[in-house]
Amino acid sequence: MPAAPTHHPQCVLVTGGAGFIGSNFLLKMVPRYPDVRFINVDKLTYAGNLLNLQSIEDAPNYVFVRADIADRNAVLRLFDRYRFTTIIHFAAESHVDRSILAPLAFVESNTLGTVVLLEAARRAWGDSSTDRRFFHVSTDEVFGSLGEESCFTLDTPYDPHSPYSASKAAADHFVRAYAHTYGLPVTISNCSNNYGPYQFPEKLIPLVINNALEKRAIPVYGTGQNVRDWLHVEDHCEAIDTMLQYGAAGATYLVGGHGERTNLDLVRLVLDLVDEELGRIPESSRRLITFVSDRPGHDFRYAIDARYIRETLGWQPRYTLNDGLRATVRWYLSHREWLKQVLDASYRTYYETQYANR
Ligand code: NAD
Ligand code: DAU
Description:
Layout: E1 11-15, H1 20-32, E2 37-42, E3 62-66, H2 72-81, E4 86-89, H3 96-101, H4 104-125, E5 133-139, H5 163-182, E6 186-191, E7 193-195, H6 204-213, E8 218-221, E9 227-232, H7 233-246, E10 252-255, E11 260-262, H8 263-278, E12 289-292, H9 307-313, H10 321-333, H11 336-343, H12 346-355
Parallel strand pairs: 1-2, 1-4, 2-3, 4-5, 5-6, 6-10, 7-9, 8-12
Antiparallel strand pairs: 9-11
Helix pairs in contact: 1-7, 2-4, 4-5, 6-8, 8-10
This protein binds nicotinamide-adenine-dinucleotide and 2'deoxy-thymidine-5'-diphospho-alpha-D-glucose (DAU).
């Protein structure tokens, strides 16, 4: 890691902090940095869940505000109220399948929402040379699809294929345009597939665990030969902490897990772990695997060349895929109440009870 930090966060706007990666990030960073204020702004869509954040909700350096980042007036009010030094921008509609069914919400939250934040930051920060940073959390999906060989690198051209990745790519372009045109101090990270605690069970790994628990069919798209590069969410959160404090303003980092697997191999691995943890007959859950019709426009393979972040900032993942998956399976098996609650919308009731009349 470089000797001196390039940025010193003091008052941090975290968008989308009630979602999967955002809540993992806050659960780690709020206790780690008691002198830093964290303002979590989340619309609480179906994917946002305040239950994830119960252990920090009374922390003196943490505040939750329910707001839509695409709502310009709400965002401007926030910037009037808090003197943000730092923005860590997670908020997004994040599920590719939902973007195929209903793309407009992705344009509103992912693209327009990002521009609203950039504009608010530009107005609040002006061209001051003081220490500020806009950290944009993006995805490897902006680069499109790889064949059997090679990896995404910093030179790979943008080629998004789904409405989700197109909306994220557009946001990345706006972030760079604000850096280029107005000198906004930005950092962009493009990360591979995350997995771990608190991931909404619409995504492959928690969906497999949940269906296996309920002995329901496990839908595998197409032939199951598509490849993803899996990274444990805690490794991603540590990478963000490092890039934010030590990364160069204006830099882009590619973050990946060296965890490439075909979907079919991954599903089998997860199912075998579930069998082992539950004491079921080894490999018995594999019979639940059901091949279903493919995702339209399904990207074949993603893989990340993470040399730049390793060589410049010394970050590398700590979890092996096997250890990370075992820990994740154990987490879901010991949080069945959480699963039940996110699946039946009772967390909205929790929110209404907790925040009514405040
Ligand atoms: P998620 O869907 O679990 O959570 C998204 C959060 O954003 C939710 O809490 C939701 O309520 C909130 N949100 C959505 N629209 C909003 C809006 N208009 N205003 C305010 N809040 C809003 O997503 P995630 O998996 O945690 O992903 C977080 C970020 O990381 C996203 O930007 C995503 O593109 C990126 N990313 C995700 C992965 C992955 O594998 N999950 C990999 C790389 C990058
Ligand atoms: O690469 C980073 C991206 O990873 C993030 O930007 C996205 O926010 C995140 O959702 C994830 O996108 P994917 O589409 O790769 O993740 P998902 O879990 O939806 O699917 C993983 C793979 O599994 C993909 O090839 C599709 C396949 N799949 C998925 C589901 C939900 C199935 O075969 N069956 C399923 O039921």
